[in-house]
Amino acid sequence: MEDFLGVSTSHPLPEKKSMVAASVGSAEIQPLVQSMVLLPEASREQPTAQGEQEPTSSRPPPHSPLSAPLPQQCVFVTASLLSAICSLLDNLLVIAPRDTVNAFGKAHLIELLCGIVDATFIEACVQELRTPLPSSPPGEHVQAQVSFFLEYLSSLSRLLKSCLLVEPNLVTQDDLLKPLINNIIRVLTVCINNALDVELMSAFYHTWTHLFDLLAALLRKAGAVSHPSITSALARHWAAMMDVFCECVGLSSRCPALYTSSLHFLSVLLTEEARRHCQDKDKASSLSPPTITSLLDETQDNQKSPDRLNEVILQCYEGKSSRDTLKRVAANALLSLLAVSRRAQKHALKADLIDKCMEQMKHINAQLNLDSLQPGKAVLKKKEDGFIKELSIAMQLLRNCLYQNEECKEVALEAHLVPVLHSLWPWLLMDDSLMQNALQLLYVYTANFPNGCSSLCWSSYGQYPVHAAHRGASSSSLMLCILKLASQMPLENTNIQQTVFLFLSNLALSHDCKGVIQKSNFLQNFLSLTLPKGGNKHLSNLTILWLKLLLNISFGEDGQQMILRLDGCLDLLTEISKYKHKSSPYIPLLIFHNMCFSPANKPKILANEKVITILAACLESKNQNAQRIAAAALWALTYNYQKAKTTLKNPSIKRKVDEAYSLAKKGKFYS
Q: 173: which DSSP letter?
């Protein structure tokens, strides 16, 4: 078979079938299945050398029987023609999206265009350029073939991205998607090094940019379908892909588009991985396919590529100016790596990323304080300086470094994370995005880290900026600042409200923090909650946040005493238990359940008729979870407490408890 340039080659391109329209002796246009074969880019009508026989024309005489229309014809096309067709179809999708999508579906055009993609052809051509054989065609001919095919891949990628925006089902069919992704990854991992000329290397980089963009679009628009195929394909070429990512990061100056698209794809891939992990963490098994996280965290001696990737991304982030837009690209990739990879966290710890972020936050605080001394200068103006972005990125990097990593949390504790945030507190109050990032950082820092929780109760050092009184008075500890923020948070600011209560739920597990909560009378705010009236039986988000906080407080006896000391708290909890809240329907019952286990609480619980009535009523509930919680609470209340046994001899309550006990013995509660 002839190659693109009319030269015989040992790498034939496969024939593909296509639907085209042809007029066959009728006014109607009939679709015919035809064979589509890629032809050389050069003209097939080439001059012949002297003495050579001129090739016979394949066109039949005008009156030959062969000139009659045939049911199937062989249509010869070039890669450049296909590129132009893809660009034309892309434009049609913009102008008439619905009609074009319907036409694509009827003609199966996307399947045909994707079916032409074959990484074997490019691999063979590159290998031929690296080690040419005596029988090989001239190098410039092979380079032209590769360039034309790479341009076709770029045009096809742009078309497929447009299809994903208009109708993802055109691209996400399993029989189309898997081979397409496999071929894309193979094209990305073609070993080009420096063996090719500059022009062909540039063509590869251009195509890689579009391929990375297409993979990112697949994950964004059809992550559930495309992520398994992309992960499997990456796993088969993992070491080579790590080298490609490192090479792309190193091209940030020469080829910023490729640098951006490759790191953007990596960020989207890791984000999708983290999202799927949260959804499927209860379904994990030893037979699960490899994940990107497991590949990144492999510890074999020959798996040094992930460390190199972490290093080049971190160096790129630290080497860029804060005003360089490429720095944000590196930051996003670094954030994604730190969120899913323990190995990346370990590398960041060795590279002193935590200390560097802390120093950057101190520097920003000092600069903000200095600017506040200049009369008439507006501080924290988003359009005039990059302080908000720099501070936000530093806090996000710290958050992801500390995520489920006690070693990193210890380093942050020694670096005085809490005092630094306390000194920044007046500035955080001025910007909601900064406050949200700071609360998320503290939420991660204090999770399962008692020393971190206790550090919030210490008095912080450092001077507040001038005019701090206009932004809110200082407090002796960051813990008191958090409580004040939670008490005064406007109801419309739901994001910060939710984050601050989740953070307080972590602190409620700490003995030191519970002491500060009690002394501040913060829990009095719970009693001022307004319950819905009339036909509305759904609790507000703020009420549910309060319930979750009280539940964490009730896990310890000191916290249970705090709840019991609130005059009217038990009555309010019994009222709340009558309302609907889908996310956490049994929290009031769980709070009662926890308090029933402490001997010191039993007299007060038993004396509250409303609580006993609620627990007894739940024994007859159709919901087994409510039955279990109430039965366990009543059994705990009567255990080793004679007065409770006497009080609960009420025939109605006793009968319900006995029935619940019988069900438990039969195993129906726990079936």
A: -
